[in-house]
Structure formats: structure tokens, C-alpha cells
Specification:
This protein has 424 residues and is an alpha/beta fold. It has helices spanning 76-85, 104-114, 139-145, 160-173, 184-187, 196-201, 209-225, 237-248, 259-263, 285-297, 331-340, 347-362; strands at residues 2-12, 17-26, 29-33, 44-47, 53-56, 58-63, 88-93, 120-125, 149-151, 177-179, 192-193, 205-206, 229-231, 253-257, 302-303, 377-387, 406-416, 419-423. Strands 1, 2, 3, 4, 5, 16, 17 and 18 form an eight-stranded mixed beta sheet that branches. It is globular and about 65 Å long. The structure holds (4S)-2,6-dioxohexahydropyrimidine-4-carboxylic acid.
């Protein structure tokens, strides 16, 4: 079986590749990258017209697939279907399932089920047993079982000394800790960013200090024991400044943000629609701008989605709904629309943020468009205009902040392990 991608723009920053070319895939393996393959016989020809893009498959290092325990919201198969539709050939699932992923057996449960998806779904495991913040998990056993990192996402490890010990142990285990930086006591029941909008709505706010404080704490703890640390979903200008300074000081910190933080502000909450609630929350224009700048200047290492499905029923009451938004099917399109089309971000840098860097941070094998490699690619049309209609999403849950948004650019085909796993 031979596929020919004709006149396609191949973008692979890991090789400095950005050119219009022909790519042939023979029995799943990339067999040719050069112009004028038109004379070659192929079972199927995909005409790129010089505008379709072929890039290494995207990787999202921060998703919630709710499996086991809350599969009415999402399961590994439906989460993977959403990932494939979005151009992702891999994702790392957070361990705040029911029960949490905190043992080799639970790690193996995710890995076994993920085999059915055709893409690479890997579990993070919890830093503490039962995510209770009391007793550390066995890092080496979790790593051996296949965990790709450690996190208590949804919350931080409250006890700073316990967190310091966990970080110290990673020097030996080699695992990455990805930290959700929000102090729950400062949050104190807040549901949206604390400021003008929370006052206007008369709801309790989430003070930005909750994020800045734990970001600074994690960096100080990592620095004290020479460990690396990854900061989850950065949303404040304060955190950006702290991380930028720490990187300048040579501290081993990496971080991520999600498209909603460089797209929207807490003005969206004026609608009293819980689909715009997530933690950390949408902030102010100053924060939005700082996040965008940090993506562009390299302070932020990767774009994740924090894909956090919740049912329509759960999201129906503004004040009591759980935090979280789905994002796998809109991430690429929103990044193209908000950052690439206005000329702020090159395609090559975008692929670094969404494919190369997340794999690098997790220590996973790189994916590249190279002869002899199994095809692991997303094919997207940067010009395709579409509207986000929640009912059309592959995810079981429809809680997207981008509902009704008209976007420019869309993934049209995903290949993983040499197979076409999605086509629009
Ligand atoms: O909004 C969020 N939802 N943020 C998190 O960190 C956790 C997530 C969830 O699990 O729903």
C-alpha cells in the first residue's frame, strides 16, 4: 500500500525541514521525501496543492481521560478519538481518576487499554498515594510499570517538605514532576479569577497569588535539590515572570499553557456559563498578553490542552459546576487562528510547542518525518475555515470554551504507527 502526499509543505523543526515536497509512505513507512514523485505509482494520492501541511504528530502532555471511574465523561477510547481528530498521535493522561493512578497495577490498566487506540496514550501517576498528600508513591515501580511522569494535577502537593522530598527522589528515578500550581487555601472556594468580574458577578474569586505563590515554591524547592520541575497550565503574568527569571538563573524548570489562556479573558464569565470555568481560571487582558508573549519568546515550552471533560449536567449550574474544559479538537486550530495567521508564530515554532517539546520534556522518543520511520504525522489545512459545534466533537463531553468560534485551520488526517487513524 503506497500513499503519496503530493506538493505538501513538510514542517519538521527537529530537522530544520520546511519545504514543499512529495512524501511517499509505503506499507506505513516513510519511503521518500523529495519533489517530483508524481511519476511514482501510488494507491492513493493526497494533493497538497502547496498549502496542506505535513508535520510530526502532535503530543499533548496534559489531558484527563477519566478512565477508570468517570467514564460517563470520557474514556480512554473516546479521549483518543478526540486526540486523533485534533492531530495528536500521543497524549499523557493525568492521574486524578477514580481511584487515582498511584500504583503499578493502575498504570498498567491505562497502558493496556491505550493499546486499543492506535496512538500513544501514556499515564502520569500520582506523587502521593491516593493523591491524599500524605505518603509518597514508589517512583521507580511506577516508572517500571510505564508511567511517563508524576503529578497531582487538580491540586498541588500541599505539604512543601513532602513535595521537596518527591522532587529530590526524581534525581534518582529520573521522573518528571508536573505541578498544578494553585494554593487551595488562597483559592478558598473561589470559582473564577478574583477581580472586577468576580465582584460584578458577586461570586468568590480565585486570587492570582494562589498560582504565583506555588509556582515560586516549586521552583525554589526544585532549585534546592537540583531537580527539574514542570509547571502546569500557566495563566498569570506573575507566574510567567517567575519562570522567566528562574530559567535565566539556570534552574531546571519547564512549563506549559493552554490555548484558552492566550485567547480569552475573564470577561467570558459575564455570561455565567460554567463552560468558561476551569482551574486556573481565565484571567485579565494583562495576563492574556503575558501568556502570549511567553509563548512567543520561548519562556513557555509547550502548548497543552488540559482536556478536562465534564457532562452537560455537571456544567449546568454556574456556581457549583466542576472546573475544566475539553480542548483536543480545537487546540491546533485555535493556535493557527490566534498566533500563526496574525504572523506572530511560525509553523515550525508551533510544531516545536505542540509536538517536539512535550516529547522531549517527558523523555519520549522523538517523532520526525524521515525516510525509514513509520509515518507519525498530522496533515492539516491551515486555511480551512470551520465553526466549532460542540455536538460534532468526538469527545463524550462538549464543554468547550470555543463553542461557536469561527476558526481558520484544521487537522484533516492523522497517521500513527504507519496507519491512517483519522480522516476528516
Ligand atoms: O480545570 C481543571 N480541571 N483543572 C484541573 O487542573 C483539573 C481538571 C479536571 O480534572 O477536571
Amino acid at each position: 500500500m503506497k500513499l503519496l502526499f503530493k506538493n505538501i509543505r513538510a514542517v519538521d523543526p527537529s530537522q530544520g525541514l520546511d519545504c514543499i515536497t512529495d512524501i511517499t509512505v509505503t506499507d506505513g513507512i516513510i519511503s521518500g521525501i523529495s519533489e517530483n514523485k508524481s511519476a511514482v505509482y501510488a494507491d492513493r494520492i493526497i494533493e497538497g496543492k502547496g498549502s496542506l501541511v505535513a508535520a510530526p504528530g502532535l503530543f499533548d502532555m496534559h489531558v484527563h481521560f477519566r478512565d477508570p471511574g468517570q467514564t460517563y465523561k470520557e474514556d480512554i477510547l473516546t479521549g483518543a478519538a478526540a486526540a486523533k481528530a485534533g492531530g495528536f498521535t500521543g497524549a499523557a493522561c493525568m492521574p486524578n481518576t477514580k481511584p487515582p493512578i498511584d500504583s503499578p497495577e493502575s498504570v498498567r490498566y491505562v497502558i493496556d487499554k491505550a493499546r486499543q487506540t492506535g496512538i500513544n496514550i501514556l499515564p502520569f501517576a500520582a506523587v502521593t498515594k491516593g493523591m491524599k498528600g500524605e505518603e509518597l508513591t514508589d517512583q521507580k515501580a511506577l516508572l517500571e510499570a510505564g508511567a511517563c511522569g508524576l503529578s497531582e494535577d487538580g491540586r498541588p502537593v500541599e505539604n512543601a517538605e513532602l513535595m521537596r522530598r518527591a522532587l529530590e527522589l526524581t534525581n534518582d528515578s529520573g521522573m518528571l514532576i508536573s505541578s498544578h500550581c494553585e494554593d487551595l487555601r488562597i483559592i478558598n472556594g473561589g470559582i473564577i479569577n478574583k477581580g472586577e468580574i468576580s465582584r460584578k458577578l458577586g461570586v468568590r474569586g480565585m486570587d492570582r497569588a494562589s498560582e504565583d505563590y506555588i509556582t515560586a515554591r516549586e521552583i525554589a524547592l526544585a532549585a534546592s535539590c537540583g531537580a527539574r520541575v514542570h509547571i502546569c497550565h500557566v495563566s498569570t503574568y506573575g507566574s510567567v515572570n517567575i519562570i522567566r527569571a528562574a530559567k535565566r538563573d539556570g534552574i531546571k524548570v519547564t512549563c506549559e499553557t493552554a490555548p484558552h489562556y492566550f485567547t480569552y479573558t475573564d470577561e467570558k464569565l459575564l455570561s455565567r456559563d460554567a463552560d468558561y470555568r476551569m482551574s486556573p481560571p481565565l484571567r485579565t487582558e494583562r495576563d492574556r498578553q503575558a501568556i502570549e508573549e511567553a509563548v512567543l519568546d520561548g519562556t513557555i515550552d509547550c502548548i497543552i490542552t488540559d482536556h478536562a471533560p465534564h457532562s452537560a449536567d455537571e456544567k449546568s449550574v454556574f456556581e457549583s459546576a466542576p472546573n475544566g474544559v475539553v480542548g483536543l479538537e480545537t487546540s491546533l486550530a485555535v493556535t493557527l487562528t490566534r498566533l500563526y495567521h496574525p504572523g506572530k508564530l511560525s509553523l515550525s515554532r508551533m510544531i516545536e510547542l505542540m509536538s517536539v517539546n512535550p516529547r522531549k520534556i517527558l523523555g519520549l522518543a522523538p517523532v520526525s518525518i524521515k525516510i525509514g520511520e513509520p509515518a507519525d504525522m498530522c496533515i492539516f489545512d491551515p486555511e480551512l475555515r470551520w465553526e466549532v459545534i460542540p455536538a460534532e466533537l468526538h469527545s463524550k463531553s462538549k464543554n468547550t470554551v470555543f463553542k461557536g468560534e469561527k476558526l481558520r485551520g484544521r487537522n484533516i488526517m492523522t497517521l500513527c504507527g504507519g496507519k491512517i487513524v483519522y480522516e476528516l
